[in-house]
Amino acid sequence: MFVQVNQLQKVFKGHTAIKGITFNIKEGSCTALLGPNGAGKTTTLHMLSGLLSPTKGTITYSKERDYRSHIGFMPQHPTFFNWMTPIEFLQFAGKLSAVPKNLLKEQVNNTLSFVGLTEAKNRKIGGFSGGMKQRLGLAQAILHQPELLILDEPVSALDPTGRREVLTLMEKLKERMTILFSTHVLHDAEQVCDEVLMLKDGEIKWDGSLTSLKRTFSHTAIHIETVEPIKNAFDNLIKPHTIHFTTENNATILEITPSLHTNDLLTTLLSKGYTIQRFEVTEDSLEDVYMKVVEI
Amino acid sequence: MKNFITLFQKEMLESKRNGKWIWLPVVIMILGISQPITTYYMPQIIEKAGNLPEGAKIEFPVPTGAEVLAATLSQYGTIGTLLFVLATMGVISQERQNNVLTLIMARPVSAFQYIASKWSSQVIIALTSLFLSYVLTWYYTNLLFSPVRWIDVLISFLIYSLWIIFILTFTIWLGTFLRNSGGIAGVSLTLLAALSLLTGLATRYMKWSPATLRDQATSILIDQKNLDTFFLPVFSTIILSIILFALAVNTLKRFEHF
């Protein structure tokens, strides 16, 4: 499914939560919606799933008919009818999403085993743990095999094991459907998604692929540590202001120009007789990049 | 239509599981039959309970069956209204408060289907309870007092049902914009009481009021009088209920934060 969002705006009682954002979601992509708390992630996802109507702007789906049957939505804290069992709830949800009657039973069972709830299928939802509810939330979102899966903070409330499990499930789902999910756990975004949408104060700060985001914002740096002081070792190789000395044996080169080869640095050091203790080329993590983008 | 049936079945199952299908009929039935029974045994009750002086004699005129049934209707009007409002107050606000409404409305469900499922299930439970209770009370009344024609009983029940439908629709409508169940019951009962009071005080201007239906149902049993203004409250109650229903659908549609 292809979604086109144009000049989307949302005003709550005089407070503008979303300030006219424009973006596209490509068919088959997996997009992460990043941003600090209060950036408007949930509002955006609610508008995309039809729970909120935009104040201004349009959301166009490639499907003309009631698009809600082609969308699977999982809210941040999914809640159910506590008196139902997972089977009952999924059958209820499946009927509402017009899953054909003859396929319903099979699909419910498949979905339950996919999210690993087969053993608990006849227990009351009221006694479920947070992780199980999260998995049931995912189950109800994928039950009717939607083309677009919208997940609001699918892993934020989970322990490391649960997070791992949900991410593995998402990895599998990626092959079948377009996924849009919001998160503030950057490491998770990096693991499953390939497109990134960054939101801050209701405005888009970045829209593009994860690799180009890193290429644009991330910095490479070289850390060198030697036994002898290296104050003047690179005098003719690099400009003095791009090198930073923490101690006299410790240097960090911040700006790496294409003409500078890391091997030249090494040969220079070796030929001058330095004893190298550490030589490391580091790249900014997604977290560093995120901080940079958010602070623009 | 299909989604309406799914939602309706869920409502029925929920009412069965949480016991509403048991407690509401039982309580309304007890409320109903207590009227003929206490009326019948009133002389004995007073004799046993009171510190009457030696030789005191109390004469009770024996009421007719129709009068006993009319007194039962007045019980339904006070305690019955309270029970029906309490049973209906949380049907929407609860689902909105614990966010399960998000999961329902993210699917192709319309606000009309949702409200209609709530409304019809509540009306069915309430009217079934009222019917069982009324028929049982009628049986005891015939047994202990003078008999009442079944056709009068049926017509008074049908008229009274309109009042029940009105209070349920009113409570459901309040539930689409008030979040707190207690608040819904409070507002609903206060306004219904105000309506009844106003109907009693300004009879001349309130001939259309749904609260007059209760008097209409009573007079069908007792004297068949005042039936010339019979159609006005019936008509206005049906119209008012339809308007409240439409308002409920509209409020839910426009309501943003589920």
Could you explain how this protein is built, in words?
The complex is a heterodimer of chains A (296) and B (258). The longest helix of chain A has 14 residues, at 101-114. Chain A has 296 residues and is α/β, with parallel strands linked by helices. Chain A has helices at 41-48, 86-96, 101-114, 130-142, 160-173, 186-192, 210-217, 262-271, 286-294, and strands at residues 3-12, 15-25, 30-34, 56-61, 71-74, 148-152, 178-183, 195-200, 203-209, 220-226, 243-247, 250-253, 276-283. Chain A has 2 domains: 3-216, 3-Layer(aba) Sandwich (Rossmann fold), CATH 3.40.50.300; 219-294, Alpha-Beta Plaits, CATH 3.30.70. In chain B, helix 7 (150-177) crosses helix 8 and helix 7 runs parallel beside helix 10. Chain B has one domain. Chain B is built from 10 helices and no strands. Chain B is elongated. The interface between A and B is medium-sized, with 26 and 23 residues.
Short structural description:
The complex is a heterodimer of chains A (296) and B (258). Chain A is of the alpha/beta class and 296 residues long.
Descriptive terms for the model:
heterodimer; A: 296 residues; alpha/beta; Rossmann fold; Alpha-Beta Plaits; 6-stranded mixed β-sheet; 4-stranded antiparallel β-sheet; 9 helices; 32% helix; 28% strand; elongated; B: 258 residues; mainly alpha; 78% helix
- Please write the CATH class name of the largest domain in chain A: Alpha Beta
- Identify the strand order in the major beta sheet of chain A: 5-6-7-3-8-9
CATH-defined superfamily of the largest domain in chain A: P-loop containing nucleotide triphosphate hydrolases
Distance between the termini of chain A: 32 Å
Q: Describe the oligomeric state of these chains in a short phrase.
A: heterodimer
Report on the biggest sheet of chain B.
none
Protein chains sharing the most extensive interface: A-B, 26 and 23 residues
